[in-house]
Structure formats: C-alpha cells, structure tokens
User: Fold these one by one.
Assistant:
Number 1:
Amino acid sequence: MAILVVAEHDNESLKDATHKTVTAAKEIGGDIDILVAGKGVKDVAAQAAKIDGVRKVIVADHVSLKRQLAEAMQEVIMPLMDGYDAILAPDTTTGKNFMPRIAALLDVMQISSISGVESPDTFVRPIYAGNAMATVKSSDAKKVITVRPTAFKAAGEGGSASIETIADPGPVKSEFVSEELSKSDRPELTAAKIVISGGRGMGSGENFAIIEKVADMLGAAVGASRTAVDAGFVPNDYQVGQTGKVVAPELYIAVGISGAIQHLAGMKDSKVIVAINKDEDAPIFQVADYGLVADLFKAVPELEQALRDAGYS
Amino acid sequence: MKILVPIKRVLDFNVKVRVKSDESGVDLANVKMSMNPFDEISVEQAVRMQEAGLASETIAVSIGPDKAQETIRTALAMGIDRGIHVKTDAEVEPLAVAKILKKIVEDENPDLVILGKQAIDDDSNQTGQMLAALLGWPQGTFANAIEKDGDSLIVGREVDGGIQTIKIALPAIVTTDLRLNEPRYASLPNIMKAKRKPIDAKSPDDYGVDLTPRLSTVKVSEPPTRSAGIKVESAAELVAKLKEEGVI
C-alpha cells in the first residue's frame, strides 16, 4: 500500500498536524510519502523529510499554491493519485476544503475526521457532535481520509526522506484576494498543552484580558465558546467546538462557559478539565474534573494570585 | 441569477443523542427533527440575495424520506420560491447526494448553489466540495460573507488562522458558516403562503444515481464517558490540585 499525506504548513514551517497525520498513515501501514504544496516551501520540505518513517517528500512550489486553495490543490493531487492507494490530510480548514474534491473526482466516499484506525479499510469517526462513535468500513478502491489531529500522537523525527519536485499546476477559477489573520504570541490553539476558554459569562471582549493574563502565566492558548465569538468578544478562529476547533490539551480551563453539546464536542477529550462558573447546575460541571462554583470576575484574579503564589509570573 | 439551496432534515441540535443498545446506530424514533442549522443559514442567504435583487429565483431541494417535505415547506415559508423533493428512505452518503445534485443543477441551470458547510448528524463536511468537483465549478467554503462582483463572488471564508477572502467566478458553489447571517423566523402568513408553493416530487431513479453506500457502518457506540469530578472551594485549592495532577 502507498499512502500520500498532504502536509499542513504556512509556507514557512510544517505544522504539528502533519506529524499526527503521518502516525495515522503508519497505523494503516505501507509506504508513506508527503506532499508539500505551497510557495517558497524549501524549509517546509526539509522539515517533512525528517519525519520518521517517510519514504519521499514531493514538493509542488508555485504561486497558485501559496494559500492551498481547493482548485489548485486538486490540480496538483489528482495526477499523483494513480500511484497511491490512500490519501490522508489533517482535518483542518485547509484539508476539509480540498479533500472532498479529490474524493469526488476519484469517485470514492471520503472518511472525515477519523479518530482511530481499526484496519486498512476500517476507521472510527465521531458523529453527532462527538456524542456517538461510528466504526465504518470502506469498500472503495482508494481511501480519501481526513485525520483528527488531536486523536493521534505526533510522529517522531529522525527520518531522511528524499525530496523531489513536480511540475506547476495550471490556472484555476478561484483567486486569493486577502486575509486577516489573528496575531498572537500565544501557542496555537489546537497544539497547546493548556487552553483557557471564555464564554458568554465573560461579558465583553475587554474582560478577556483577565483570562489572557492567566494564559500568559501558564503559556496557554486562549479559546472561546460560540456565544463569546458571536457576541464579538474574540475573533471566530478562537472558537472551540463542533463547528470550530477540536482541542485535546493536557489542561482545559472553561471560564463562564455553560457547556452546550456543541462546545463539549470540541474539548471533552482534554486530559484534565476545569470549570469556573457561578451556576452550579451548568452542564460543564458534569464533565469537569475540578469545578469551582464562583463568580469568574472574582475567581480568575484569585487564580492569577494563586499561580503567582505557586511561583508563576 | 438563479440560486439552488440543498437542505437536510436532521436530529434537532438540542437533542441529546442516544446510541441504540445493539450498536446499530442512534435512536431517531420519536425525537425532534429540524432543518440542519447550517442549511437555515443557506436558505436565509438565498432569500436575502433575492430581496436585494441579486437573484431572480430560489429553489430548495431535499433528499430524504416523506418528512423531508416538511423541511422544504420550512424553507418555502422563509421565502424560497419552490421545492424539489427527491424521495428515498435510504441513507444517502455525501457522494450520492452530490451526484443527484449535479443532475438537478444540469436540469435547473442555477448560477449559484448554496449549501451548509456540514450536517450536524454525520458531521462530514463534504457535499458542497464534492458537488463543486463534479461540476468543475469553483468553491467558496465556510463563508461568513458573500458579495457579488460582476460575474464573480467575493467570499469571506473562516479559516484556522482568521478570515480569508477569495474571488470565485460564477457559476459557483458556496458553503455557509454559522456567522454568515441570522436566519429569520417564518411568520404565520408566510407559513400559510408556503403551503401553496409547488414542490416537485422526484425519486433517485429519475436521476439514475446509484445510492449504494460506499461506507458500511460496522457499529455505532457510545463515546468514552467522563464522570463529574470534584468541586474545589478556592482558586488556591484548584492550583494545588492541578500541581498534584502534574498539568501545571
């Protein structure tokens, strides 16, 4: 079996989601190649070549691939698919965007957001916002799979794969106009070891400053519930949940979040969950390892002080 | 411009799912069903574009059992002009849905198809992209803003790092994200009016699409459950516990 893994990157560095997708590919078994499609991706390709267990890195370097738009990715991937039995990409907004196009053109059903590999044709995936786990067996000749990165460990380094470059894709019907990316010095939400999220209880965007302080002391990422995003407290890409990001950090601290089904879908695989909420009947307490029933405007500054007392700054 | 809006009837988003004890699936007997929330946003978007004079006709299509007709009526009550109901009791995978929709697109010649980004039951997030691929059309997925610019659309997309704006040539596929708009409630007069709007009854056979599933469900099981932990009395106690756990 030959498996193609599509790398997640920002043209400068390879994202951890790629390493985790390689682990899923290893569980399926076979020769694993990585496709790095982008613009100016020499460093990314070099990083991909170091992942343990990778046979070959294929580089497609062209301006049309800079943002990995679906139509351009399709042009690069489809000619390669004769040589592969499976294609895997992380279940990020990039992978979710182009992978179903590949599946449709290969006339196969995509298996979305797998959280487990049972055998080379049988996979586990969450459905109904993670409230049920479906084990599905694919009868398709080629497998098109997106991988939930939080469900797999990152593959290690130490490999020395060869790197080859392929030809440019042709022109496509969509063009990139602009982007507004949230600037942050904090760790990336999906890869952070600690995540602190605020909900509607935060009351305003300014009030997020109190959890940001704690986040910075712990080196944590800041997330949010949908209601906090809808209210405009923080940008959309902070959203944790069924329709936002799925995280599984060592520690997840939910502040002023009631714990709707859709939010739990994005964080309930965290190792330790802490809830700070003044409503002791909030559903979040049913999944929290540690609950503090208190007004967050009092509790969060106290938490900050307690961390300072414990040696954090 | 003509707009086609595919919609799906799903378990209501507020209902707590129950997995059947024989692990054959989730229990959908006697539970509340509604229009998929993302599809409500698609319907709202199509109706707004028509109200803004950008669309001449809007069509809702749903593939599913008899009751999917109720979902189409809801769309008609929100302002969609007419419906197409492709009746089947089979569970239809995104690939087969995309194939049926492709045939409907070929019959109806819409300039734009607006779909929800994912259905909250199978959580696949595939159909729009698959339809775009089968038609050879460009796609604007996870849209939180849509603007018409001549023969193109400017689409703001919710991506992992923030917002990305792309320009796609019409005809095109757009899939909607939650923040695109706030769907309206259908008023009683509009619900009454919707009863007189036409719904075309079709079957998958009319489109010659093979619905045989490519994925067979081996089992559906409960996810690992978490039990409630302990309540702490103070922030200091919380920090002490987290240190004990070794997570800070």
Number 2:
Amino acid sequence: MAPTICEICEASRAAVIRPKNSQKICKQCFLSVFEAEVHDTIVSNKLFHRGERVAIGASGGKDSTVLASVLKTLNERYDYGVDLVLLSIDEGIKGYRDDSLETVKRNAMQYEMPLEIVGYDQLYGWTMDQVVAQVGKKGNCTYCGVFRRQALDRGAAKLGIKHVVTGHNADDVAETVMMNLLRGDLPRLARATSIMTSSSASEIKRSKPLKYAYEKEIVLYAYHKKLDYFSTECIYSPEAFRGSARTLIKDLEKIRPSSILDIVRSGEDMASLVPPELASSTSCAAEGDEQANGCGNQNQTSDSMVRLEKDLTANEAAAERETEIRLPQQGVQPSIHDKKRRGRRKVVKQVMGQCERCGYLSSQQICKACSLLEGLNKSRPHTTIEVGIEEEEGSTTLMKQTAGLVISAG
Amino acid sequence: MTTGIQGDVCVDCQEHPASLDIRYRRLCATCFIRYVNSKILKRMESYRFKNLAGDQKRRLFLPISGGVSSLVLLQVLDAQLRKQMENRNRTAYGLIIARVVLPDIETRAEVEEHYQAVRSRLPLHDFLPLFYLHDVFRLDEKIDRSLTHLGIDRHEGEENETFLHRVLSACTSVTARADLISILLRRLLVSIAKQQSCEAVLWGHSDSRLAALALADVAKGRGGSVSSTIADGLSVYGVNFNYPSRDLFKVELQTYAQVLSNPLVVESRDEMTDRQPSTIRNTSIDDLLSNYIIGQGVKYPGIMANVVRTASKLQVKAANHETNTCPVCGMPAITHHESSLESTVLCYGCARVKQDIKPQDSSGYGGS
C-alpha cells in the first residue's frame, strides 16, 4: 500500500490528519493552511489597523504561545504594521505561575517582543497562594477570574495600549456557547461569539484571532513549529466535573469533527436572534467572566450548575404558588405576565460607570474585584506589625494604580 | 421516581400516602395523574369550545411514534374528548392519528399490531392507514427538487422506496443520515396534516426532548433555527405546531404510564438499552444529546428545563422577503456574507449535511 499523499500539494507524504475536517496533509501545508486561516480571520474581521499597538495576553500556555508566534509571523509576512507586546499576569502561584512566566520570558526573547508582567500582589496586595490559604480551594477560581480580567485591562492601560488579544480558540468559544445556553444567560449568549468586544466606557478592546482554530490544531502547530510552551494545568483547579460542557463538546467532536465550528456558527446565529433589549449590553464585556484556558473552567462549571439548579428550583416553586394565587383572575393573568417580563428585561440592562475606589470600569458602585478584596481584607489577621506594613503597601499600590489610571485617562 | 417512606402524606390532597417524588414534592398517584393532565390541558387552551365559531369543526393532527410521549399525550387528550362527548355530545376538536414506519428500525408487522391495538381502544378518533417514510416523495410535491440542492438527483421512473434507500445510503455519517431522516419525517407529517385539512400538528415532545432538540440544533450548526424548532404556534411550514407536553419531563411521562391503570404503552421498546452504544463514533449527535439530557436531567432537571426556556426567548426570524428559507429543511437561513458556504441557498446546517452526502451514480437503479 502506497503512503498517503498530501491532499493539498500532492507531492509530500501526509503527516497530519487535520482535526477540523479529517484532511490528510503534509507538515508544511498544515502550517501554511493554519496561518492562512488565522490571517483570513484577522483580515475579514478587520481586527488590526496600521500603527496600532497590541498586547498579547501571554500565559506561557499553548494558546498564547501559538498566538504570539502566529501574529509575529503574519505581521511580518503581510505587513499589518502592528506593534506587538507581550502582557503577562502573575497570579502568585508557586510551582505553577513562576515556571510558566519563565516560559514567557524565553518567548519574549525568541520573538523579540517587549514583555510586561503585572502581579496580583502588586495590584491587590494578595497572591493566589494567599487567597487559597484564606478561602480554600473551592471557589478560589472566582477570585482569580475576576482579578485576572481586571489585571489584563490595567496592564494594557499602564502601557498605553487599547487592544488586547487573547488565545481563546474555537473549543473555548463553543464551550462558552453551550454553557450560556445551559445557564439561560442571553446577554452573554449575545456576545459569547463576538470576535471583537469593546465597551463604550472603556478604551480597551479585546479580540480573539484564534476563534476559528481548533485546540488540537493549535497543539499540532506548536508541535511542528517546535514552540516552547508550558503545559501544566493550574494546581488549584479541582478535578474536572463529569458532564460539563467541555466534556460534551469533546464527545461531539469525536462524532463529527466539525461540530466545534458548527457550535460556534450556531452561537453567531443565535446572537443575532437575541431580543434587542437583552442584547443592548453586547458591547459591555468588562463584567463578563470569560473562561481562560486551564484555570478553573471545570470548577466553575461544577459550582455554577449546582447553584443554578437550586435557583431554578426555587423559582419554579415560587411560580407555582403564584399561579395558584392568581387563579381567580384568570383573565387578567396574561397582562400581569407581560408586565413581569418587562420588569425582568429592565433589570438585565447594565449601566457602566466607575468604581468608587479604584476608578476601574464597573456596572456597580464598587467593582467586583474591590468587593472581593474587601471580603478578603476583613478576614486578614493582624497578628504582627509586619502584616500591617504589608497592608499599607497594598493600599499604597492601589492608590498608585488609581493615580496612574487618572493620568492615562487625562 | 422513588417510592416514598411509609407515613408521609401527599402534599396536595393531604389524604393518601405519598408514593411519588415529583420535582421535590411528595404526591400520591391520583394527584400526580391530575398534575400531568393539568400541565397538558393547560397548553391546549387555545382549542377550547369558546374559541369555536358556530358549527366550526377543528381538526388536529397527532402523529404517534410508539414511544411514551406521544401515547401519553394521546391518552390525555382522548380522556378530555370523551368527557366533552359525555357532557355536550360533541367535541371541541377532532384528532387525526397517524403512524410512520421508519426504515431499518421497525417492521411493518409489529407496528401494525400495536397501531391496531391502540386504534381498537380509542374508537373516537380518525386513525389513518400506516405510512412509510418514503411516502414523503408521493405527498410532498417539492421534495424531489429540494433534494437536488443536496446533490441527490432522482432517476427517471425510480420507485419511492428505492429512491429513499439510495438517498439514505448516500449519507457517509450517522449524524447526516439521522438529520435527513428527521427532515423527511417532518415534511411527511406536515404533508399529511395539510392533506387532511388539519390546522395544527400536535407533537408529543416532552421538555427533555425539546431540550435535546435545541442542543442538537446548536451542535449541528442550526442555531439560527432553534427558536423555530421548539416554538408553539404557526410554523415555517404554514401549519401550527403545538407541544402540549412541553412542561413535563420525559421521566414524568414514563412515571405517568406506569401509574395509570390502563396505559396505552405496552411492552415499549427498551429505550435505555438502545441508548448505550458501544462506540461513540457510531452515535449520531441527536442520540448523544438525548443521552446527555437524560443523564444530566437526573441531577439538574431545572437546568435542562432552562435550555428550552432560553431557546424560546430567541426571536423567530419571520419568513419574509428579508430572510431566505432553506429549501430542504424549511427553516430560515441566516446569511453571513463572508462564509464560502453561503454560495448556495442552503442553511448552514443543511450545507453541513451535504458535505456528508456522497451520491452513488449506480446505473443499475436507472435501468429497472
């Protein structure tokens, strides 16, 4: 039996079976096709403009490493004229983040890009090691997710950059679509598949150039390009919950490899069908909890499904009682129902403002990060003077950050 | 549903011992039956007497599949109509019953036997003769032209059954085959309903089934038509679609069939056994999601119910001159101008099915 020939160039021996469509192609064609598809995504969605400075959210993992490598390659090949910078967040997890940051530092040298590292302890006065020591492993991902989201924006603002690209891939987007459908979260469903999200209240926009790239292909690309990346998962993220959206998506991918892109497409179609009053917050991504790779996806899934189930059960019980009470006024019931729906829709709308404490964008008076921080600080023991000194340093850092934000805003 | 401890009492009537756990409430069998009946009949409010004009006679089409859901629905509605006949000597609507024999799943003999058994027990309704899936080529006048969009051309003088076999054989994946069967089945049932002058099709789908359909649509790239798939009211086919059992879970319908003294469900197929295939690759997306809903529905029934509520809130894109309608599945096709798949008139989902279809140009068929 003759060796399989590449379906594209028909010259070399096929070395790769594309996860996306089961096409058998050689290594060189795979690299070319992958890069061409990312380029097509960038151009058709007009992600970049000449002269723009762009920060790449770099964690040292495979997605951000491939993203940095591909963007450097395409920027040189197609002359986007974009100034690329690596931006990393140090959560303060010993044995995990310090090692992955070493990877990012090597990437910065290999790709000749400037690197900026922002730490949780620097911004908030708390490392994740300290947070976990305080609140335990369960639920710590909520803190980390909220902190990281804000930290990325703050890091970009500090550098005077208004565009952050992240390594979210097609698998991440598909999982988000499924999760938002299961959670009944229409505002997030409306924006889950947006490749570029921005907010009228914030200058920093986000985009996902790898939105249509499969996770498996990203791994293959990194392998064939011999890219240097860190692959350990977060040590604080508990065991994956069986039946999560991620598991479902992997099963679907086995049945039909294109399922992931099919789900992404469905997400885009459904986004256009979300009622306008619910979709009005499409551009407000600041408070959204986009799930980052490897950091607590499964844990959040597990927690949120249990919690959501309790809420829905309570809602249904209340609705049952309500229906019984309304029984004598059967004719009036429909209009009452309509009014309630209107009330619900109003609640969903978000008005963006600024946090009273740190000046960061928020839909509440105090942003979520500051709320979490307040909770943490209340529990912090004052057994030694040194701890007190640490606290002062923390608040001083916050004031400096606030001043920095004010200056950059002006 | 677990049998309760001795001593606790039904929360509804406070009299009989509670033997069932229904959504965290302890009910006796009688109150549970009343619960199911009220959920279904509440959804049939638009077909009450007071909505009738004079001598108007409504006809509603109810296809049964032999499964629990459609038979429970039929039994509940039959009881309602018999009560109306006793009280007023006439009914608010008439039921037209039909059954389709699906290829490779069941034989005509066993379907006929069960169908006649149901028929003999419910003399009030109009039972049509059995249909086959390939009857869609006889009753749906546009179906041949629709299939050409999938790259399937019918040979001159080719028989319906032969054509169906060739169409299904052309599918290279289990999912595409299942998708095509469900499209053909839906179009057949709509054609029968129109032929019989019925104003609506009553589907026996439970909440669990609707959730599985919604998720499967999303997984197959048909997210744009999810709201059309599960919405009550006028469908894209010009006939009303109603889902009276949409407020009930599949497991509740199964419990109802067990609790009832005279169920229509007799020796129903071991649906659980069939749903555990050895290899996931031989499963269709629809089956995978049905299993997912069943598995997760046990732990998180509210979340699964939430899927249908969420999908129902999505707007249905009206079929007007602004929106294209897919010629194969009839659903609205949302166009994204960048995509190369949009060079055809097919919706994204059917375009994906087309990729999995490899027509065989066997001259043997044409020669017969």
